[in-house]
Amino acid sequence: MSRSPLSSLASRLSNVLGYAVLRLVSLPLGLLGLERGSAFMGWCWRTLAPKTKRHPRALSQLEAAMPELSPGERDEVLSAMWDNLGRTFAEGMLLDRLLKEPDRVVVEDETLAAKLQQPTEAGLGTIFVSLHSGNWEALGVPLAERGLRVAALYQAVQNPMLERYLLAQREKLYRAGMISKGSHAMKRIVRLLRSGDAVAMLADHRQARRGIMVPFFGQDAPSTPLPATLALRTGARLVLTRCRRVGPVRFAVDLHEIAVTQTDDHDKDVKQVTSAIQTQLEAWIRERPQEWMWAHRRWSREVREPNQEASAHR
Description:
Number of helices: 12
Largest sheet: 7 strands, mixed
Radius of gyration: 20 Å
């Protein structure tokens, strides 16, 4: 059923307004530059975000996942989290400038990084898997600087004007293109990996529809099986990445290769590799909880502290 002219007009106006707001926000950031723009937006988010409805969810999930933290420590973690997200937003609006200063993003393991610049012995590419920690957008900078052809899997936004703007900002980072999640994404990714190119994706969000349940902070969480499925199907190398914030708009990238073993039980293999991915992501989050996005709903239901979980089944 087609929409009414009034509904279509309202949708177009909403798209224009959303695009205009983003551009208006990006203008002062451009004038401030990388470091001052990042600091300003960090302050804005740190000041305003705790007053939103996402803050109680973030606090609830942090309390359940890391009950060993004191109330004061949790407040410090979440304040730093909002600051980091504000900074990441600003730096995302200034990706072109970050690309011009690639020394701001340093890869810790240069030996592994050099290895990743080459296809596998079978001529296959690499699956880069990351999480919403530090500045995940900056991970594309060292990949582009090294000349890797990387495609990024992303969730399209509904506003076509915003979509075009955001894609244009990222096209220099991902030379193999941006792949929107959808029915044709899998075929395109497999084709790229088999041609020796790389694919980057995030794996820390709740996968409600097609996720598989694996442990995450002591409780089963619906997690994406896509990285494991791709690695098992193609034989491509599977590498986890994170981008730590180590100074004003300065980052260190960690790389961790996941061993992928194939047996006659495909479903078991997928679950084992997916579990290994989530275990490493959890370890990274525990190291730097202030840099992870606690505000998104990671579990299928409200998480409980381990002692509460046990009591509920008595």
